[in-house]
Amino acid sequence: MTTLVKKRESNETRAKPAHECPECGGHLATDPKHGEVVCEDCGLVASEREIDFGPEWRAFDSSERQGRARTGSPLTESLHDYGLSTVMGRETRDAQGRHLTPDKRLLMARMRRLHQRSTYRSGAARNLAAAITEIRRMASVMDMGQYVTEQAIRIYRRAASGDLIRGRSIDGIAAASLYASARINGLPSDPDVFARASHVDRRTLLRLHRILVHELDLKARPATPYDHVNRFASALTLPHEVAERARALLERADRTLVTSGRSPTGLAAAAIYIVAQRSPTPRTQRQVSEATGVTEVTIRHRARDLLPFVEGAATAANAP
DNA sequence: CATTCGTGAAGACGAAT
DNA sequence: ATTCGATTTCACGAATG
């Protein structure tokens, strides 16, 4: 064990990947925890196969350490073979550090090519690899967490084994999987944002998502207004108290039927608007509309529905 | 003057046929 | 594939302060 650690420490001069982002020329930073090299400026993931030498588990004595020590990347959903495949390097020296003769180098190149092909054994695996790449790309663009990404990949795997891909685009199902994962995990997910980050339009994205939900029995929790309140409140630079009161208002209204069938964003925006009006930090409908993407008209409609549930409002004040 | 409120036409969506 | 019902959005003008 110690030899490995020592080796790594003494390897300060090991060939680091280029320090400039191929996309924007920005600075590349390594994230050893996730085994990625990302550009600090544009977020491009330059390399995903850095090896994390850290132990998989905590070890309390040397025998445990021995039992659990390993090399290679951690197991992950994010690679089509769970990260278990091997890759042949392109070094031009042999294990003893001697230069290879030209014909040996040609031989190695041939072997490497065959080896690579063998890793993508079947067409299905190749497709899966492509889908995972696409999912990771979108997740990276949209700044989504690793957990959500991996669940998206699990969903994609299920879709693939359920034969739901045939005749549909891989990118489309990939986008729908990520969207589904975001929805399941209660992340505010605007279909338009996903459509922009993917290669499919909003319409197909939603259609494919419906198929996934239906066929895979995903517990597709519809986004609740609560999911948006915090986001909206901070977009409008309102204090926490406003968000809390807005949530309380929604909760009171939710016991009745006025919230059913209405768009969650509309309800959240209206609740924020109402509470803000009655707070020291009011916001106009226009401001709320711009910050939330909900139309003023809709804010008005929902606000009218929610009004009876405002704290200290006469319950039956509806007599024109 | 800015903000809020109301309305009718039009589009999008889901469900059902 | 089409139709239907409910909802949201757009564009406008009126009312309100």
Please count the beta strands (DSSP E, at least 2 residues each).
3
Average pLDDT number: 70
Largest sheet data: 3 strands, antiparallel
Q: Give the assembly state of these chains.
A: single chain
Chain-wise SSE layout:
Elements lengths: L1 H8 L18 E4 L4 E4 L5 E3 L14 H7 L33 H18 L3 H20 L3 H16 L8 H15 L6 H7 L4 H15 L9 H10 L4 H15 L9 H14 L7 H8 L3 H11 L14
Antiparallel strand pairs: 1-2, 2-3
Helix pairs in contact: 4-5, 4-6, 5-6, 6-8, 9-10, 9-11, 10-11, 11-12, 11-13
The protein binds a DNA duplex (17 and 17 nucleotides) through helix 8 and helix 13.
How is this structure best summarized?
This protein is 51% helix and 3% strand. The chain has 320 residues and is mainly alpha-helical. The relative contact order is 0.06.
Q: How would you explain this protein's 3D organization?
A:
The chain has 320 residues and is mainly alpha-helical. 51% of the residues lie in helices and 3% in strands. The longest helix has 20 residues, at 123-142. It binds a DNA duplex (17 and 17 nucleotides) through helix 8 and helix 13.
